[in-house]
Amino acid sequence: MALRKLFGTDGVRGKANQYPVTAEIALKLGMAAGSLFSKNEKRRGKVVIGKDTRLSGYMLESALVAGFTAVGMDVVKLGPLPTPAVAMLTRSMRADLGVVISASHNPYEDNGIKFFGPDGYKLSDEVEASIEEKIFADTDLLAVPSCDIGQVKQMDDAVGRYIEYVKNTFPRGKRLDGLKVVLDCANGASYRVAPTVLSELGAELVTIAVNPDGRNINKDCGAVHTDQMCAKVVEVGADIGIALDGDADRLIVCDEKGQVIDGDQIIALVSREWKKSGILQGEGVVTTVMSNLGLERYLKGQGLKHIRTTVGDRYVVEKMRSDNYNLGGEQSGHLILGAHSTTGDGLVAALQVCAVVTREKRKTSEVMHLFEPVPQLLKNVRLSDRTLATAALNSDTMKIAIDKTERALGDNGRLLIRASGTEPLIRIMLEGEDLNQIKQMADDLANILVSEVKALGGE
Question: Is 175 left (phi over 0), alpha (psi -120 to 50) or beta?
């Protein structure tokens, strides 16, 4: 398979109006993807398009629509809607393709384009490579005759369909009466659906970041900027805080004390509940290499397997599908609840948490603290050149240092060291019982890396 030029781990992403996130590339993406997914001779192909609240979403949407219709696909525009809603509606509407225009948790200046196949799952690397191949060929050859140009319509009830879908994942007949919730929608795609779902289920809501203006998405709010949510929970005496990111595929929670609860603790809770109820498949959970060692120990204590993948929710999903697991996720709050969704869904995950808190009638801090996280340290070492950084990481001196560190940690810690796929960075992650010890280990490894780069002629 040829080296991919446009697609990263989650679609095409970058600064809006700069290559590759331009109207021109979006047009070609529409034509290339549309030509691949409209092969049914008995009917016209159909694509659904959703977006978050970024200013640039309208520009990219128009370009994609032009590309899809130019190759004969009919387009259904969903408007601002969470990423998991688009995945769900792609399946529900029997569409050939689903598209989300979003850069997730990134600032408004960024944007991206990601695709879902007719089954609601993200496209494979091989399919994305095929799309790229068509883009860098002559897309003009893909255009259909004038009489076959696709049609476009706006779907008026997309929000309502997703609201009912999400509510149906909540235990039947149960409500959230008496639960006071601070809800942070990141001024993003969930600003309408999330408050409606929680209020209709009976929660007492205090909302923040529900007034998008095209430029304030994720700005000091949402799942990656939780200070505002945590402070508001304490201020108003709420039982729980729920923070979604810009496209609502990520969830971070805080307890009544304003203490952040990450994706690892949420996975622990859901795994326990699903095991008890018989929902959990495969007697295990899939996470990435970044999940805390404390979660691994907790799952082992519950008699569950813990399978790790490389970083990226798409790799978690791929492993879940290939080995028949239905629960997985990332420490960052991407939670894939396979019993309900084909991709990360922050709102569905939030309802799982709220259901337990309400049922047990205990404080969120008591319900959610299922294991003690092992101290974890992340350190990025920026070097002068990607090639030299990778060479330094693979040097004999570095291998010896890594082996020495791993032996010192033993079974009480973990080292992960890897080169960034896009920047001249080496990322070091260390876990261990002694925070001072792992800080020193990280510094020592970083110094050796820098020395090795200098020895190779770098700076």
Answer: beta
Helix (H) or strand (E) run with residue 239 in it? none
CA proximity to 375, closest of 415, 431, 320: 431
d(CA 47, CA 78): 10
Tell me the per-residue pLDDT of 50-94, one tens digit each, with 9 for 90 and over. 999 999 999 999 999 999 999 999 999 999 999 999 999 999 999
Q: The tokens of 287 are what?
A: 């996470």
Going by their DSSP bridges, the two strands 46-51 and 74-80 should be labelled as: parallel
Q: Which residues contact 16 (CB under 8 A, 6 or more apart)?
A: 54, 55, 56, 59, 60, 109, 110, 111
Angle, alpha carbons 332-335-340 (nearest 5°):
165
pLDDT in tens, 200-243: 999 999 999 999 999 999 999 999 999 999 999 999 999 999 99
CA–CA separation, 193 and 211 (whole Å): 13
Phi, psi of 114 (to 5 degrees): -130, 155
Rounded to two decimals, the pTM is 0.91
Residue 104 bears catalytic tag: yes
Q: How far apart are CA 14 and CA 237, in angstroms?
A: 39
DSSP codes, 384-429: S-HHHHHHHHTSHHHHHHHHHHHHHHGGGEEEEEEE-SSSSEEEEE
CA-nearest of 71, 61, 114 to 90 is 114
Q: Which of 38, 104, 291, 341 is catalytic?
A: 104
